Amino acid sequence: MHSEERQSCIDQIFALPTRVEAAIGEVTLAGLLKIYAWHGVHHVGQITGLRESGCGEENGDLVI
Predict the structure, then answer these.
(1) Which of 38, 31, 37 minimizes the C-alpha distance to 13?
(2) In angstroms, rounded to a whole number, what is the distance separating the alpha carbons of residues 54 and 56?
(3) 59: alpha, beta or left, given left = phi > 0 and alpha = psi -120 to 50?
(4) How many domains does the chain have?
(5) Model-level pTM?
(6) Separation of alpha carbons 60 and 64, rounded Å
């Protein structure tokens, strides 16, 4: 398989609906990856904010 054909197959896989979310409807694999990437960054931001504010700290460890 040539690289162009392989890329076309990969693009098709990423465009397939992979699951249905009640709130937003069909979600593709590419869409899920974007959601999970954002969600991880969101949690890092929350934890960073807690650390900077000193909230939730016990003996120097962050307690969530």
Answers:
(1) 31
(2) 6
(3) left
(4) 1
(5) 0.47
(6) 13
Residue whose entry in the numeric block shows the structure tokens 């016990």: 58
User: What is the token pair recorded at 33?
Assistant: 């990856």
Domain that holds residue 20: 3-62
Q: What is the pLDDT of residues 11-22, one digit of tens each?
A: 776 676 666 666
Q: Under 8 Å CB-to-CB from 29, ≥6 apart: which residues?
A: 13, 14, 16, 18
Length of the chain: 64
Q: DSSP 3-state assignment of 47?
A: helix
Residue written as tokens 């991880």? 40
- State which amino acid sits at residue 23: A
